[in-house]
Amino acid sequence: MANYQWYPGHMTKAKRMMQEDIKLIDLIIELVDARIPLSSRNPDIDELGKNKSRIILLNKSDLADTRKNKTWMEYFSDRGFHVLEINAKTGAGIKSIQGVVQEACKEKIARDRKRGIINRPVRAMVAGIPNVGKSTFINSFAGKACTKTGNKPGVTKGKQWIRLNKGIELLDTPGILWPKFDDQSVGLRLAMIGSMNDEIVHLDELACELIDFLRAEYAGMLENRYEIEINDEQSAYDVIKSVCISKKCFLKGEELDIMKSSAMIVDDFRNGRIGKITLEMP
Ligand code: G4P
Fold first, then answer.
1. Which of 3, 31, 131 to mutate for ligand 1's pocket (most ligand atoms within 8 Å of CB)?
2. Ligand 1 touching residue 139 (CB < 6 A)
3. Dist. CA 163 → ligand 1 center (Å)
4. Stretch 113-140: mean pLDDT, rounded?
């Protein structure tokens, strides 16, 4: 699990590396988490990546609300991004990327052609905050149909490129964007999807936040998952207690193991076992 201890030093280093790598590429393939497409993104990339072609991938779309994925696709597409929903783990959606890359880079390709440069591959980098699925994506996108081109002295010293068959070269190390904790709700959402160090998070508080959200936005899901009844008078904490009883989370004797059922609820959510859930909307 990613460990979000972002000190100014980490941030400066990540930013410097992005600035260096961006000089080498035509296209940024930015991954966001479909459950929190804004909180999992750092808008500084827009400034760093100006003049570059841009694609946004709503990754982990299998865990997010199918209908809301569509809303987010429209949101980003209205803002001028090429956007796709994918599941980097299974490879779903990845086949469409080739076409989108050509589309996103068509001005560059036309410019090259005018200058007599034909079939120069588009150079791309994958970027995103920790844990959004960058490595998983690179593996499934590159698959076996690729060869590492190795160092190209002078131009790309020390950089490894993965040559994909149809005109794309991918930098093999992804750009790491730093999370942007503008307000507390961003930190909370990152914690919910498991992108914060759980040692600095109180799981019972996190479970309460999740329960309140689910009761308001996804009525019935908790009841189904845990075979419990919930009425309006109950607090989120009462719901955790009900889950303790239903799922037999007890300490010695009859004492309820609140931390165990809290951890269960949070973990079930993170792994999609409660349902397909999106935590934020535009
Ligand atoms: P990073 O390079 O951006 O830091 O992320 P990484 O690829 O390491 O992925 C982080 C976690 O997210 C991994 O799980 C990975 O399997 C999972 N993941 C990536 N893409 C998807 C997706 O589209 N859907 C789902 N459901 N999961 C995805 P992990 O807990 O580290 O390992 P494991 O559970 O796969 O064993």
1. 131
2. no
3. 23
4. 92
How far does CA 254 lie from the centroid of its chain?
40
- Fold classification of 203-282 is Conserved Hypothetical Protein Ylqf; Chain: A; domain 2 (1.10.1580)
The finding on whether 88 has its CB within 6 A of some atom of ligand 1 is: yes
Domain 11-176 and domain 203-282, same fold? Reply is no
Segment 18-40, tens digit of pLDDT: 999 999 999 999 999 999 999 99
Q: In terms of Cα–Cα distance, which of 266, 87, 47 is closest to 177?
A: 47
- The ranges assigned to domains in the chain are 11-176, 203-282
* CATH architecture group of domain 11-176: 3-Layer(aba) Sandwich (3.40)
Higher local confidence (pLDDT), 71 or 112: 71
Cβ–ligand 1 contact at 63 (below 6 Å): yes
Which pTM value belongs to this model?
A: 0.92
Radius of gyration over every alpha carbon of the chain, rounded to an integer in angstroms:
22
pLDDT in tens, 245-277: 999 999 988 899 999 999 999 999 999 999 999
The CA 43 to ligand 1 mean position distance, Å, reads: 22
Kindly report the protein residue whose alpha carbon is nearest to atom 26 of ligand 1: 60
Give which of 98, 103, 104, 102 is closest to 86, Cα–Cα.
98
Nearest CA to ligand 1 atom 4: 131
Residues 6+ apart with CB under 8 A from 145: 164, 165
Position 271 scores a pLDDT of: 97
